[in-house]
Amino acid sequence: MPRQRFCSTLAQMHEKEWNMKVNDRVTVKTDGGPRRPGVVLAVEEFSEGTMYLVSLEDYPLGIWFFNEYGHPDGIFVEKA
């Protein structure tokens, strides 16, 4: 099934982040600190956004992060 195209400028601005796939190098936003480097282990699409399982140095088995469509404050995972 083809990926739905969004019309909003914000969605277009973050399109590259939404196209992340397994093994991509990324950075993640966490509370109270700088962005942390990691690697995408899994990707799950939802109607409100995308969940990424990201392996971090402290958590090699991964932690789930959610990127919410249409909300810049809801973007936690970005391509490195």
From TrEMBL:
A Pfam family assignment: DSRB
InterPro entries documented for this protein: Dextransucrase_DSRB (IPR019717)
HAMAP family (UniProt xref): DsrB
NCBIfam families: PRK10708.1
Family from the record: Belongs to the DsrB family.
Name this polypeptide is given: Protein DsrB
Species per Swiss-Prot/TrEMBL record: Siccibacter turicensis
